[in-house]
Specification:
The protein is mainly alpha-helical and 208 residues long. The protein has a domain of 63 residues. 94% of the residues lie in helices and 0% in strands. It has four helices and no strands. The chain starts with a helix and ends with a helix.
């Protein structure tokens, strides 16, 4: 009986060992699960922090964009007010000035032929005055010229500012004077030649 009990007791020990063997396996699984959960929680915490930083950055960008939109909206509102003010005040003033300008242009168009005639008269008077002034300058220049130069210009050139009758008279006097001088020179030369011949003749007679 004791041997049977001992055998039974020995046979019961392995069964107990077999009954307690799953405990270490469940502990390792639990540790592995805890590690996985801690890693996942760390990853989730990192993801949450990353998401939080992105949310903060996006929020700051949104605030900046909102500020820019508010500034743009304010500028558009101010521009709209200015445009309305210009539309209500300046455009009627511009229309009045345009009407006045059109009236002035119509008056100028009516007065343009008269002004053109007056300008033509002024131009004619200016041209005649300039010609008279040039004539006076030429006369003064002619009067300040020496007598010999004036005499030579009248006789030998057609540019002298004297009448044709005076030119003809001066040229006739010059021609008569020239002919008389030529005739006197011819007489003098003839007399000298005769005197020279007579001197030769009287010399020959005296020598003989």
């Amino acid at each position: 009986m004791s041997l049977i009990k001992l055998g039974q007791s020995r046979g019961e020990r392995p069964s107990r060992a077999n009954s307690y063997s799953p405990a270490p396996m469940s502990t390792s699984r639990l540790e592995l699960a805890l590690r996985r959960m801690s890693q996942e929680s760390s990853q989730h915490e990192y993801d949450v922090k990353h998401l939080e930083s992105q949310l903060v950055e996006n929020l700051s960008n949104f605030r900046a964009i909102n500020g820019l939109l508010q500034d743009a909206l304010g500028s558009i509102q101010r521009t709209t007010k200015r445009a309305d003010t210009a539309l209500n005040t300046q455009i009627p003033h511009i229309s009045d000035e345009l009407d006045e300008s059109l009236d002035a242009l119509a008056e100028l168009a009516e007065a343009l032929p008269t002004i053109r005639t007056q300008v033509a008269d002024i131009r004619h008077v200016y041209t005649s005055g300039r010609q008279k002034a040039q004539s006076l300058v030429d006369d003064l220049t002619w009067l300040n010229t020496e007598f010999y130069e004036r005499w030579r210009t009248i006789i030998f050139t057609p540019n002298s500012p004297v009448s044709l009758r005076w030119k003809a008279l001066m040229r006739l006097v010059f021609a008569i004077s020239f002919l008389m001088c030529t005739w006197l020179a011819w007489i003098a030369l003839s007399g000298a030649y005769r005197a020279h011949r007579q001197r030769l003749v009287w010399g020959d007679r005296l020598m003989s």
